[in-house]
Amino acid sequence: MENKNDAGTAGSKLLLAILIAITAIGPASTQFLLPAMPAIQADFGTTTATVQIALSGAFFALAFSELAYGPWSDRSGRRPVVIFGLALYLIGNAVCIVAPNVEVLIAGRVVQACGGAVGLVLSRAIAVDVYGADKAASVVALTTAAMALAPLLAPTAGGLLTDHLGWRSTFVFQVAIGAVVLLAVVLRMSETNTSPSKNMDFFAMFRWFGKMMGDRAFASYSLNAAFTMGVFFSFISGAPHVTQKLMGRDATEFGLWFMIVAAGYVVGNLTSAKIADRVGARRMVLIGSSLGLTAIATMAGGLKFGGWEPLAMFLPGGFTALAAGLALPSAQVKAIGRFPEVAGTASALIGFLVLMGGAVMSQIVGMIQNATPYPMVAAMGGLSFLALAVLVLRPADDGAA
């Protein structure tokens, strides 16, 4: 794959490796926390809803941080912003390690998330910088597939660390990983934004946001991505409660079952990377959204008629994640490609919408959980329907496949 420019690194393979690493930081930190949540609740003697804030609060922090990182990188360059974000990520993890109560832990998680957000927004912008809008969908799909290997292993590693060394060890592990990634960026990543927009200020940012959301194709693709991510985070928010409290399984077993979900996401993204250019963005998102709704209906039926067993939840959950992997790369890149001149700002806005979908639904699912798995499934089904609906209603004349 040829570079649009050579500003990123010494070669495209090295650039891809760095994009994988900075993108993986944020999602992996969420997956590390999942199996530790019941232990944190017991350690601090607090409620499920309170501990849930450590998850949903981080999603909100990720979302709002992306709004700042994108325009900042359009104005000042990608590299210094990435370095700042990774340093902030390390500070947040350090706070979590020494947290004396759940309030300080939540604060540390917010700081951690603010730092981890930098890779989520800027990896997409850097891909558009270097590869161009036409080729970036495949690059983003490959990056997302590879970085999903970190969340694939994180729940298992987090469960093992929690069960054998305590939940604080999960944050120690993340400090070690973050330090290595920061060192790689400092030593090997150079600037990719070769035409910074010096006119990008606070007011210009909101003018661009208004223009983007006024573009019906951008709005449709970005809302589809937001609802799709809401489905995914509804599952990861509700699944620990259902698996450990309703099904009576431990944190390690939850992590092992969750590998099906992460593997589905990897397969979806690898498939997207292979066929997205040939199939076309609109068809990819339609296929993914339709498959997701079908998988959730299968989950509901399996739990209702087959019993509350992990397989009935995690196998359809894996297909739901596969569907997200098919749809999300094309939806995000096509939205960003509508405004390539301010790719960082466009990536920030779609990232904000996607993460807000996750943040809102993770907290709602945490609040409505009861002695059944059905609130989680109902939230997933409703959002999946909306994801398909906004795509179907999109005008066909957006100039994209």
For the record, the CATH class is: Mainly Alpha
Order of helices and strands: HHHHHHHHHHHHHHH
What is the total domain count? Answer: 1
What's the count of strands? 0
Distance between the termini: 21 Å
Give the helix level as a range of percent: over 70%
State which percent range the strand residues make up.
under 5%
Q: What is the CATH superfamily classification?
A: MFS general substrate transporter like domains
Morphology call: globular
Task: Give the class from helix and strand content and strand pairing.
Answer: mainly alpha
- Radius of gyration, CA atoms, in whole angstroms: 20 Å
Architecture, according to CATH?
Answer: Up-down Bundle
- Biggest sheet record: none
Task: Determine the number of helices (DSSP H or I, runs of at least 4 residues).
Answer: 15
CATH topology: Growth Hormone, Chain: A
Mean pLDDT: 80
